[in-house]
Amino acid sequence: MTAQLALHPLGKRLGTEVEGADLAHLDDQTFAAIEDIFREHPVLVFRDQKLDAHQLAAFGARFGRLREHILENYRHPDEPRVSFITNVAKDGGVDKFGVTRASSWHADETYDPPEKLPRLAILHAVEVPREKGGTLFADMYAAYETLPEAMKEKLEGMTGRHGYTDGPDARRLYTAEHIAQRNASRPECLHPAIKEHPVTGRKVLFVNPTHCHGFVGMTNAESDPLIEELRDHSIQDDNTYYHKWRVGDVVIWDEIATMHRGAADAAPEERRVMLRTIVHPN
Q1: CA-closest candidate to residue 230, choices 138, 118, 108
Q2: Do residues 168 and 228 make contact, with C-beta atoms less than 8 angstroms apart?
Q3: Going from the N-terminus, what domains does the chain have, and what CATH number goes with each?
Q4: Could you read off the pLDDT of 218-263 as tens digits, one per residue?
Q5: Three-class SS of residue 278?
Q6: pTM score, whole prediction
Q7: Are 267 and 129 in contact (CB under 8 A)?
Q8: Is residue 143 exposed (0-12), middle (13-18) or buried (19+ Cβ within 10 Å)?
Protein backbone atom coordinates (compact mmCIF):
# COMPACT_ATOMS: atom_id res chain seq x y z
CA MET A 1 0.00 0.00 0.00
CA THR A 2 1.23 3.50 -0.75
CA ALA A 3 2.75 4.84 2.46
CA GLN A 4 0.86 8.12 2.63
CA LEU A 5 -2.60 6.49 2.76
CA ALA A 6 -4.06 5.78 6.19
CA LEU A 7 -7.39 4.02 6.84
CA HIS A 8 -9.85 4.88 9.61
CA PRO A 9 -13.03 2.79 10.20
CA LEU A 10 -16.20 4.88 10.49
CA GLY A 11 -19.02 2.36 11.02
CA LYS A 12 -19.37 -1.06 12.63
CA ARG A 13 -19.02 -2.94 9.34
CA LEU A 14 -19.13 -0.26 6.68
CA GLY A 15 -17.48 3.07 5.98
CA THR A 16 -13.72 3.67 5.78
CA GLU A 17 -12.00 7.06 5.68
CA VAL A 18 -8.91 7.20 3.47
CA GLU A 19 -6.45 9.86 4.54
CA GLY A 20 -3.58 11.18 2.47
CA ALA A 21 -4.97 11.34 -1.09
CA ASP A 22 -5.58 14.40 -3.27
CA LEU A 23 -8.13 13.06 -5.74
CA ALA A 24 -7.56 15.90 -8.21
CA HIS A 25 -3.87 15.01 -8.52
CA LEU A 26 -3.42 11.24 -8.22
CA ASP A 27 -0.37 9.39 -9.46
CA ASP A 28 -0.90 5.88 -10.81
CA GLN A 29 0.58 4.19 -7.74
CA THR A 30 -1.78 6.00 -5.35
CA PHE A 31 -4.79 5.29 -7.55
CA ALA A 32 -3.86 1.59 -7.69
CA ALA A 33 -3.69 1.58 -3.88
CA ILE A 34 -7.19 3.13 -3.70
CA GLU A 35 -8.52 0.44 -6.05
CA ASP A 36 -7.04 -2.26 -3.82
CA ILE A 37 -8.59 -0.69 -0.72
CA PHE A 38 -11.97 -0.40 -2.46
CA ARG A 39 -12.12 -4.16 -3.10
CA GLU A 40 -12.18 -4.77 0.64
CA HIS A 41 -14.01 -1.62 1.80
CA PRO A 42 -17.14 -0.90 -0.30
CA VAL A 43 -17.75 2.62 1.09
CA LEU A 44 -14.74 4.96 1.05
CA VAL A 45 -14.66 8.53 2.40
CA PHE A 46 -12.12 11.18 1.36
CA ARG A 47 -12.18 14.48 3.26
CA ASP A 48 -11.22 18.01 2.20
CA GLN A 49 -11.34 17.50 -1.57
CA LYS A 50 -12.16 20.20 -4.11
CA LEU A 51 -13.17 18.84 -7.51
CA ASP A 52 -15.04 20.57 -10.29
CA ALA A 53 -17.29 18.57 -12.61
CA HIS A 54 -14.49 17.85 -15.09
CA GLN A 55 -12.11 16.68 -12.36
CA LEU A 56 -14.80 14.47 -10.82
CA ALA A 57 -15.49 12.90 -14.22
CA ALA A 58 -11.77 12.38 -14.82
CA PHE A 59 -11.39 10.67 -11.44
CA GLY A 60 -14.42 8.47 -12.07
CA ALA A 61 -13.18 7.52 -15.54
CA ARG A 62 -10.09 5.94 -13.99
CA PHE A 63 -12.40 3.28 -12.51
CA GLY A 64 -14.38 2.60 -15.69
CA ARG A 65 -16.88 4.05 -18.13
CA LEU A 66 -19.13 7.00 -17.36
CA ARG A 67 -22.47 7.71 -18.96
CA GLU A 68 -24.96 10.54 -18.83
CA HIS A 69 -27.56 10.31 -16.07
CA ILE A 70 -31.13 9.33 -16.92
CA LEU A 71 -32.57 12.53 -15.38
CA GLU A 72 -31.59 15.13 -17.97
CA ASN A 73 -32.67 18.11 -15.84
CA TYR A 74 -30.03 17.25 -13.24
CA ARG A 75 -27.06 16.84 -15.59
CA HIS A 76 -24.20 19.28 -15.12
CA PRO A 77 -24.24 21.82 -17.97
CA ASP A 78 -20.48 21.61 -18.51
CA GLU A 79 -20.05 17.85 -18.02
CA PRO A 80 -23.23 15.79 -18.68
CA ARG A 81 -21.63 12.64 -17.25
CA VAL A 82 -21.83 14.40 -13.88
CA SER A 83 -25.20 15.15 -12.31
CA PHE A 84 -26.48 17.21 -9.40
CA ILE A 85 -28.01 15.70 -6.28
CA THR A 86 -29.66 18.80 -4.86
CA ASN A 87 -32.72 20.30 -3.22
CA VAL A 88 -32.05 23.70 -4.82
CA ALA A 89 -34.25 24.58 -7.80
CA LYS A 90 -32.86 26.47 -10.79
CA ASP A 91 -34.66 29.63 -9.60
CA GLY A 92 -32.97 29.34 -6.20
CA GLY A 93 -36.03 28.02 -4.39
CA VAL A 94 -36.65 24.54 -2.99
CA ASP A 95 -36.67 21.67 -5.48
CA LYS A 96 -39.47 19.53 -4.01
CA PHE A 97 -38.44 16.45 -5.97
CA GLY A 98 -34.85 17.01 -4.87
CA VAL A 99 -35.92 16.99 -1.21
CA THR A 100 -37.24 13.41 -1.36
CA ARG A 101 -35.31 12.09 -4.36
CA ALA A 102 -33.43 8.85 -3.67
CA SER A 103 -34.58 8.74 -0.05
CA SER A 104 -35.79 5.14 -0.28
CA TRP A 105 -33.29 2.29 0.00
CA HIS A 106 -31.88 1.35 -3.40
CA ALA A 107 -28.89 0.45 -5.49
CA ASP A 108 -28.51 2.62 -8.59
CA GLU A 109 -29.80 1.49 -11.96
CA THR A 110 -30.82 -2.08 -11.12
CA TYR A 111 -33.61 -1.45 -13.63
CA ASP A 112 -30.90 -2.07 -16.26
CA PRO A 113 -29.89 -5.56 -17.46
CA PRO A 114 -27.01 -7.41 -15.75
CA GLU A 115 -24.41 -6.47 -18.37
CA LYS A 116 -25.17 -2.75 -17.85
CA LEU A 117 -25.14 -2.59 -14.06
CA PRO A 118 -22.88 0.15 -12.64
CA ARG A 119 -19.72 -0.65 -10.75
CA LEU A 120 -19.64 2.28 -8.35
CA ALA A 121 -20.85 5.81 -7.73
CA ILE A 122 -19.03 8.90 -6.48
CA LEU A 123 -20.66 11.79 -4.60
CA HIS A 124 -18.89 15.08 -3.81
CA ALA A 125 -20.28 17.58 -1.31
CA VAL A 126 -20.36 21.22 -2.49
CA GLU A 127 -22.96 22.63 -0.05
CA VAL A 128 -24.37 20.78 2.96
CA PRO A 129 -27.07 21.50 5.56
CA ARG A 130 -25.97 22.88 8.91
CA GLU A 131 -27.61 19.89 10.60
CA LYS A 132 -28.33 16.37 9.40
CA GLY A 133 -28.80 15.80 5.65
CA GLY A 134 -26.75 12.61 5.67
CA THR A 135 -26.64 9.52 3.46
CA LEU A 136 -27.15 5.98 4.71
CA PHE A 137 -25.37 2.91 3.36
CA ALA A 138 -26.13 -0.79 3.95
CA ASP A 139 -23.64 -3.66 3.62
CA MET A 140 -25.20 -6.26 1.32
CA TYR A 141 -22.38 -8.74 1.89
CA ALA A 142 -23.34 -8.75 5.57
CA ALA A 143 -27.03 -8.79 4.65
CA TYR A 144 -26.50 -12.08 2.82
CA GLU A 145 -24.12 -13.61 5.34
CA THR A 146 -26.47 -13.00 8.28
CA LEU A 147 -29.57 -14.42 6.59
CA PRO A 148 -31.02 -17.56 8.19
CA GLU A 149 -29.90 -20.67 6.28
CA ALA A 150 -33.48 -21.46 5.24
CA MET A 151 -33.84 -18.00 3.67
CA LYS A 152 -30.51 -18.35 1.86
CA GLU A 153 -31.69 -21.64 0.36
CA LYS A 154 -35.03 -20.13 -0.66
CA LEU A 155 -33.47 -17.10 -2.33
CA GLU A 156 -30.74 -19.02 -4.18
CA GLY A 157 -33.27 -20.12 -6.80
CA MET A 158 -35.19 -16.86 -7.04
CA THR A 159 -35.00 -14.08 -9.62
CA GLY A 160 -35.93 -10.50 -8.83
CA ARG A 161 -37.98 -8.36 -11.21
CA HIS A 162 -36.71 -4.77 -11.35
CA GLY A 163 -38.25 -1.58 -12.74
CA TYR A 164 -37.49 2.12 -12.49
CA THR A 165 -39.38 3.28 -9.37
CA ASP A 166 -42.04 0.71 -8.65
CA GLY A 167 -40.75 -1.32 -5.72
CA PRO A 168 -42.83 -1.21 -2.51
CA ASP A 169 -40.83 1.65 -0.96
CA ALA A 170 -40.85 3.69 -4.17
CA ARG A 171 -44.62 3.37 -4.46
CA ARG A 172 -44.90 5.11 -1.09
CA LEU A 173 -42.44 7.84 -2.08
CA TYR A 174 -43.41 8.74 -5.66
CA THR A 175 -46.75 9.46 -7.30
CA ALA A 176 -48.39 6.92 -9.60
CA GLU A 177 -47.96 9.42 -12.46
CA HIS A 178 -44.22 9.70 -11.81
CA ILE A 179 -43.81 5.93 -11.68
CA ALA A 180 -45.79 5.36 -14.89
CA GLN A 181 -43.85 8.08 -16.71
CA ARG A 182 -40.45 6.75 -15.64
CA ASN A 183 -41.29 3.11 -16.34
CA ALA A 184 -42.82 3.71 -19.78
CA SER A 185 -39.50 3.57 -21.62
CA ARG A 186 -37.73 1.07 -19.36
CA PRO A 187 -38.57 -2.61 -19.75
CA GLU A 188 -38.45 -4.86 -16.71
CA CYS A 189 -35.05 -6.41 -16.00
CA LEU A 190 -34.25 -9.62 -14.13
CA HIS A 191 -31.51 -10.17 -11.55
CA PRO A 192 -30.81 -13.12 -9.23
CA ALA A 193 -31.83 -12.45 -5.65
CA ILE A 194 -28.43 -13.77 -4.56
CA LYS A 195 -25.64 -12.46 -6.77
CA GLU A 196 -21.91 -13.13 -6.89
CA HIS A 197 -19.93 -9.91 -6.85
CA PRO A 198 -18.11 -9.64 -10.21
CA VAL A 199 -14.83 -8.52 -8.60
CA THR A 200 -14.64 -10.26 -5.21
CA GLY A 201 -16.74 -13.35 -5.97
CA ARG A 202 -18.50 -12.95 -2.61
CA LYS A 203 -22.26 -13.37 -2.44
CA VAL A 204 -24.54 -10.38 -1.91
CA LEU A 205 -28.25 -10.01 -1.29
CA PHE A 206 -29.29 -8.21 -4.48
CA VAL A 207 -32.81 -7.08 -3.63
CA ASN A 208 -33.69 -3.42 -3.03
CA PRO A 209 -37.16 -2.06 -2.22
CA THR A 210 -37.10 0.82 -4.72
CA HIS A 211 -36.42 -0.97 -8.00
CA CYS A 212 -37.27 -4.59 -7.15
CA HIS A 213 -41.04 -4.91 -7.45
CA GLY A 214 -41.39 -8.68 -7.46
CA PHE A 215 -39.97 -12.13 -8.13
CA VAL A 216 -40.42 -14.44 -11.09
CA GLY A 217 -43.37 -16.72 -10.43
CA MET A 218 -44.92 -14.37 -7.85
CA THR A 219 -47.26 -11.41 -8.17
CA ASN A 220 -46.18 -8.01 -6.89
CA ALA A 221 -48.65 -8.32 -4.01
CA GLU A 222 -47.18 -11.70 -3.07
CA SER A 223 -43.62 -10.33 -3.38
CA ASP A 224 -44.01 -7.14 -1.33
CA PRO A 225 -43.85 -8.78 2.14
CA LEU A 226 -40.67 -10.67 1.21
CA ILE A 227 -39.01 -7.57 -0.26
CA GLU A 228 -39.87 -5.62 2.89
CA GLU A 229 -38.63 -8.43 5.14
CA LEU A 230 -35.30 -8.49 3.27
CA ARG A 231 -35.07 -4.69 3.48
CA ASP A 232 -35.59 -4.72 7.23
CA HIS A 233 -33.00 -7.46 7.64
CA SER A 234 -30.47 -5.57 5.47
CA ILE A 235 -30.73 -2.24 7.27
CA GLN A 236 -30.20 -3.40 10.83
CA ASP A 237 -27.96 -0.98 12.73
CA ASP A 238 -24.88 -3.22 12.63
CA ASN A 239 -25.10 -3.38 8.82
CA THR A 240 -25.46 0.35 8.13
CA TYR A 241 -23.37 3.51 8.13
CA TYR A 242 -24.76 7.06 8.32
CA HIS A 243 -22.46 9.54 6.61
CA LYS A 244 -22.69 13.08 7.98
CA TRP A 245 -21.46 15.26 5.17
CA ARG A 246 -18.84 17.98 5.33
CA VAL A 247 -18.10 20.34 2.45
CA GLY A 248 -15.31 18.75 0.41
CA ASP A 249 -16.21 15.15 1.20
CA VAL A 250 -15.99 12.60 -1.60
CA VAL A 251 -17.69 9.27 -0.97
CA ILE A 252 -17.30 6.25 -3.25
CA TRP A 253 -19.57 3.24 -2.90
CA ASP A 254 -19.77 -0.17 -4.54
CA GLU A 255 -23.11 -0.45 -6.36
CA ILE A 256 -23.27 -4.25 -6.12
CA ALA A 257 -22.15 -4.68 -2.51
CA THR A 258 -24.27 -1.91 -0.96
CA MET A 259 -27.63 -0.17 -0.87
CA HIS A 260 -27.99 3.50 0.01
CA ARG A 261 -30.52 6.27 0.54
CA GLY A 262 -30.60 9.94 1.31
CA ALA A 263 -31.68 10.32 4.93
CA ALA A 264 -34.04 13.22 4.04
CA ASP A 265 -33.70 14.41 7.63
CA ALA A 266 -32.62 18.02 7.05
CA ALA A 267 -34.94 21.01 6.82
CA PRO A 268 -36.03 21.43 3.16
CA GLU A 269 -34.78 25.03 3.01
CA GLU A 270 -31.26 23.97 4.08
CA ARG A 271 -29.26 23.96 0.84
CA ARG A 272 -27.76 20.65 -0.26
CA VAL A 273 -25.69 20.53 -3.44
CA MET A 274 -23.71 17.46 -4.46
CA LEU A 275 -21.94 16.38 -7.64
CA ARG A 276 -22.39 12.76 -8.59
CA THR A 277 -21.11 10.41 -11.25
CA ILE A 278 -21.87 6.73 -11.79
CA VAL A 279 -19.18 4.42 -13.16
CA HIS A 280 -19.77 1.29 -15.24
CA PRO A 281 -17.25 -1.46 -15.96
CA ASN A 282 -15.21 -0.94 -19.14
Answers
A1: 138
A2: yes
A3: 6-138+236-280 (3.60.130.10), 149-234 (no CATH)
A4: 998 999 999 999 999 999 999 999 999 999 999 999 999 999 999 9
A5: strand
A6: 0.94
A7: yes
A8: buried
